[in-house]
UniProtKB/TrEMBL annotation:
Native source species: Nesterenkonia salmonea
Keyword annotations: Transferase
Region span, Disordered: 1-21
Keyword ATP-binding: no
Any matching Pfam family: CoA_transf_3
GO MF, any single term: CoA-transferase activity
Highest taxon in the source lineage: Bacteria
Name listed for the protein in its UniProt record: CoA transferase
Length: 409
């Protein structure tokens, strides 16, 4: 990526940015001491919404910068996926001068977010117990793998959490070994939970005037994100097993073969089921006592599956997709990632947006929330390592001068 233009000021509000609409988090400053996925995903969402995010990186940089393939012009797309709209500064916290700069950034921040192991920041004076005392209005957000108690020394990798949470035990075919999800889903869920917690804490601070320590761990986010599966165990001791693509409580709900490839069908209630079988040519099944209710359909899956497969085999997945969609019956073909993005484009969802300007432009996936008045912006490409170090230092100096002038008045 090209060098950042010299003497670029770091915007902290919409008034500093003439090229974008005011974001809902305009004016909020975030000191980002995270790396890899959960934290960076959270801070990118905040940055998209107008927050000023200072990404503090060690001299070696965010680990995800090296996670190749795939890459775009030599830069890891894993890193590009979660780091737009941020300002990168390189600081070695073991160096006294750099540590002082880190503290200056925290001095200016509304939010500090980090994913160090519990206690890992104590020697730098940046532990939550220290920052929240020194800065009573600061929202200090900590992300760990397994909390600050018995799991404090366990490394927080998403795959470990997929295994330990039970997700892998319910993913895949019952005849095969447990499978991981195709994306680091608990990192993403934790990032979303972190953003929610930060926004809640900011709102509460507006009432009380006080900050607080917001803690998250991947395992707790995973158990929450497993919703009905973990709730079933908590409420009645049910331990779910792998069902392949079947749903434990709904049928038909999954992929079914057609004349040439699978089609996903989701009949979530009796009305949808009745419309489904009517359009497939055996409407009588909706009144059959074996299939009339969801409980009965679950008990007679194998018989119902034979009827569905026989009817669907008469035509292609594309044909049935068009016919059933027209009748309001939830269904979908199974696409690859590229086809999924293209399908969203055909729906007018515009999933790909360009982050950055001119020679630094990078195609990225858009922010998932649409605001009617304060839309997300994509003005800054994911930064090169330390690309904004000089600008961040100049910004800190200017903020210090402004503070001194206000004090002297």
């Amino acid at each position: 990526m090209p060098d950042a233009p010299p003497h670029v000021t770091i915007p902290t509000s919409a008034h500093d940015r003439k090229d974008i609409s005011p974001g809902p988090l305009s004016g909020v400053v975030v000191a980002d001491f995270t790396r890899i996925l959960a934290g960076p995903y959270c801070t990118m969402l905040l940055a998209d919404m107008g927050a000023t995010v200072i990404k503090v990186e060690a001299p070696s940089g965010d680990d995800s910068r090296t996670w190749i393939p795939p890459a775009r012009e030599g830069v890891s797309t894993y890193y590009l996926a979660v780091n737009r709209n941020k300002h990168s500064i390189v600081l070695d916290l073991r160096d006294p001068a750099d540590l002082e700069t880190a503290h200056e950034i925290v001095d200016q921040a509304d939010v500090l977010i980090e994913n160090f192991k519990p206690g890992g920041l104590l020697r730098y004076g940046l532990d939550a117990s220290q920052t929240t005392e020194a800065h009573p209005e600061l929202i200090h957000t900590s992300i760990t793998g397994f909390g600050s108690g018995g799991g404090k020394n366990m490394p927080g990798y998403d795959l470990l959490v997929q295994g330990l949470s039970g997700l892998m035990s319910v993913t895949g075919s019952p005849e095969r070994d447990p499978q991981r999800a195709g994306v680091a889903m608990f990192d993403v869920i934790t990032g979303l939970h972190a953003a929610t917690g930060i926004l809640a804490a900011l709102h509460e601070r507006g009432v009380s005037g006080q900050g607080q320590h917001v803690e998250l761990d991947l395992l707790s986010s995973a158990l929450s994100g497993l919703v009905n599966q973990t709730a079933g165990y908590a409420a009645c001791g049910n331990v779910p097993q792998r069902l392949g693509n079947d749903h434990p409580s709904l049928y038909p709900y999954g992929p079914f073969p057609t004349a040439e490839k699978d089609l996903i069908i989701c009949a979530g209630n009796d009305r949808q089921f009745a419309r489904l079988v009517s359009n497939l040519g055996f409407g009588w099944a909706a009144e059959d006592p074996r299939f009339a209710t969801m409980e009965e359909r679950n008990q007679n899956r194998s018989t119902l599956r034979e009827l569905l497969v026989e009817a669907l085999s008469q035509n292609s997945a594309e044909h049935w997709f068009e016919v059933l969609q027209e009748e309001g019956i939830p269904c979908a073909p199974i696409l690859n990632i590229g086809e999924g993005v293209q399908f969203a484009e055909r729906l007018g969802l515009n999933p790909v947006v360009t982050a950055g300007q001119q020679s630094e432009e990078v195609p990225t996936i858009k922010h998932p929330v649409q605001f009617s008045r304060t839309p997300a912006h994509y003005g800054k490409a994911p930064p090169r390592l330390g690309a904004d170090s000089e600008q961040v230092r100049e910004w800190l100096l200017s903020r210090s001068r402004d503070s001194a002038q206000e004090t002297s008045v």
